[in-house]
Write a structure and sequence with these properties.
It is built from 19 helices and 8 strands. The chain binds adenosine-5'-triphosphate (ATP).
């Protein structure tokens, strides 16, 4: 029996660890901003001060006084949790996902009859309600099962921060133990992954009749690169197979969630034949749906403090990129916090505009902080092209020419075009960029057209914080880009 793949760490830049830090900074970013509020107030009616008095040091306000003063200010946000994208809202606040709700309910309801529900694959862009709908359905099943004396459990893990298969299985063990209210009896490190699987089976068999395993952001569980099959594929194989052989007596269903619509294409054939999921697609939200979602949370704010144009504007900004509800909610929260910090009595359009800049920049930062210089160069070149085209998109062929210019300019290694394209494709995982395959007719070759999820200018601005990229003249890059775009036909 081998020791587990605890050395199975991802060496890829942009590993989950980098992102966790960025995520933490993202969520805390708005709180850590220095306050705009001036504490030194000048009373225009006060007596003119003598020269001497003016020169003397005013006693500064104590921290306690400042805290109490801020505490006494009437806030604009009444129910902050409604503006937290990680908070699971009640069912009556879910809008515009009737079809998916119905489909998933129909398939998972089998658990109520003490039977095995099918496996599911939920896919679609970020922030389109995949996790929310799954949680809502499982929560309801759990309630009804309780009444019927069926031991139903939901074991949910987010795979974004899990580097290896061994760690992912341990995470499942931990979540299962928490759901069952028991202790984990296997160590996290230094044992074979098989022992962790056995512990998972033990907990599930001892405590549940039926379990839904929810594997969120499953495509992020890549694992060791020297393995033939990605870790997510091995996890799906093992888990779904255990549900059909003697390892697990409980009925189990695996719900795999991914932003990557093509994830199933890279799942190995063994896993495909044991997983065989029902697919449920989640579309982008349009501006009207996003408005409806935000209106159902408007009571997060005090009565009558949000200007009429605030929600439509936040929804329009979020719809412009991917129709991401998380972004729409983030915009409302940041706009509200900005207004509060300015001491304003209302949330206004201008707060949403400033929030848009902050949220967009944070999202880009979240992605680019952790990636390698080479990936940054690929991204910079492609965004530079997109920033100069009418539709905001960039052809891979043109992007590569600009990438070559950049690598020459800073004396970096230069990849072949195929590697450049692969690096860009890898970046699609983060929903920052998407691509379509195109051609200009039978005589010309194929190319990929990259579309950005955020404004290319924000990406360029953020990437220029890297000193190597900053050293390249912006004007020169722009003229190279323009020349290359002219050469395109
Ligand atoms: N239909 C909806 N009604 C109300 N709120 C929604 C809806 N869809 C998404 N949200 C909210 O948007 C945020 C993101 O949703 P969720 O986590 O379900 O997205 P997701 O598709 O799983 O995205 P990701 O792949 O990035 O995890 C959550 O705060 C969720 O409450």
């Amino acid at each position: 029996m081998g020791i587990d793949d605890s050395d199975d760490s991802s060496d890829e830049p942009g590993s989950p660890e980098d992102e966790t830090t960025a995520q933490a900074e993202l969520s805390g970013a708005s709180q850590s901003e220095p306050s705009q509020q001036s504490t030194a107030s000048h009373d225009p009616n006060s007596e003119p001060q003598s020269e001497e008095e003016t020169d003397s040091e005013e006693p500064s306000q104590s921290i306690e006084d400042m805290l109490l003063e801020f505490d006494n200010q009437k806030g604009l946000i009444r129910e902050r949790s409604l503006l937290d994208p990680n908070y699971v809202v009640e069912e009556d606040r879910i809008v515009g996902r009737d079809e998916q709700l119905q489909e998933i309910t129909k398939m998972l309801r089998v658990a109520l009859g003490d039977n095995r529900p099918p496996n599911l694959f939920l896919y679609g862009p970020s922030g389109t309600g995949k996790s929310l709908i799954t949680k809502a359905v499982c929560h309801n099943i759990s309630r009804i099962c309780e009444d019927r004396d069926i031991q139903f459990g939901t074991v949910e893990v987010n795979c974004q921060d899990l580097d290896t298969l061994g760690i992912a299985v341990y995470e499942l063990v931990q979540q299962a133990a928490e759901e069952a209210g028991v202790a984990v009896e296997v160590p996290k490190h230094g044992v074979a992954t098989k022992e962790k699987w056995d512990e998972l089976y033990r907990i599930v068999n001892d405590h549940f009749d039926s379990v839904v395993f929810v594997l969120d952001e499953l495509d992020m569980l890549v694992g060791r690169r020297d393995k033939q099959e990605p870790a997510y594929s091995r996890l799906l194989y093992q888990l779904s197979r255990a549900g059909t052989n003697d390892d697990l007596n409980a009925y189990i269903s695996v719900v795999a969630i991914s932003n990557d619509t093509k994830m199933m294409e890279s799942v190995g054939s063994r896993a495909v034949s044991s997983f065989t999921p029902e697919d449920v697609h989640f579309d982008d939200y349009d501006a009207n749906q996003l408005q409806a979602i935000l209106r159902r949370r408007q009571d997060a704010f005090n009565d009558d403090v949000v200007d009429d144009d605030v929600i439509p504007l936040a929804a329009a900004f979020a719809a412009q990129t991917h129709g991401d509800a998380r972004k729409a909610i983030d915009l409302m929260r940041v706009a509200g916090e900005l207004a509060e910090r300015e001491g304003d009595t209302r949330v206004r359009e201008k707060h949403v505009r400033t929030a848009q800049e902050k949220v967009e920049k944070n999202r880009v930062l979240e992605v680019v902080r952790g990636i390698s210089t080479q990936k940054k160069l690929c991204l910079y070149a492609t965004a530079a092209v997109a920033s100069q085209t009418d539709g905001g998109s960039a052809r891979s062929t043109t992007g590569y020419q600009v990438y070559q210019y950049l690598t020459d300019a800073i004396g970096a290694d230069q990849y072949h075009q195929e590697t450049y394209v692969n690096k860009m494709k890898e970046l699609t995982t983060y929903s920052l960029v998407d691509f379509e395959r195109r051609s200009h007719g039978p005589s010309s070759g194929m190319f990929l057209e990259f579309q950005f999820g955020e404004r290319p200018e924000t990406i360029l601005e953020t990437l220029r914080e890297d000193s190597r990229i900053e050293a390249v003249s912006e004007d020169e890059v722009t003229s190279v880009v323009k020349a290359q775009i002219r050469n395109q036909t």
